[in-house]
UniProtKB/TrEMBL annotation:
It comes from the Eukaryota. This is Uncharacterized protein. It comes from Solanum verrucosum. Residues 106-125 are annotated as: Disordered.
Length: 125
């Protein structure tokens, strides 16, 4: 009888061990392999290292894209300045042409050669 009492704690430990084994088997079925606890840290370390490397690559790409965007903004600014300069030049040329053309074509009071004119041969009904 005394032997039965000493077996009770052992049986309890055996039951706990059996439950733990079942839990491990369930984990193995879910992940297709069992990773012992001492190796789990290594996996976590490797995973965190991979995550850090990936984040670093993403950060480098973002920084590169920001530089490209800044260059594009600067190019647009220069283009806008050039457009403004060309517009002013065109206005000045038009102004000069309006002063020069009457002197070149004094007999023509009908406007510029590029102006559209009504055909006098067409009769309106």
């Amino acid at each position: 009888m005394e032997e039965d009492h000493s077996l009770v704690p052992l049986l309890t430990q055996l039951d706990d061990l059996a439950k733990n084994i079942l839990e491990v088997e369930v984990q193995c079925k879910r992940k297709d392999r069992y990773i012992p606890p001492h190796e789990r840290r290594k996996c976590k370390d490797n995973d965190s290292r991979l995550v850090e490397e990936t984040l670093l690559i993403i950060l480098q790409k973002i920084n590169h894209q920001e530089k490209v965007l800044e260059e594009m903004k600067e190019n647009v600014k220069v283009l806008n300045q050039m457009i403004g300069s060309y517009s002013r030049s065109i206005q000045l040329i038009e102004n000069l042409m309006s002063h020069v053309l009457p002197n070149l074509y004094p007999n023509k009071q009908e406007g510029l050669p590029s102006d559209t004119k009504v055909n006098p041969k067409i009769e309106f009904e």
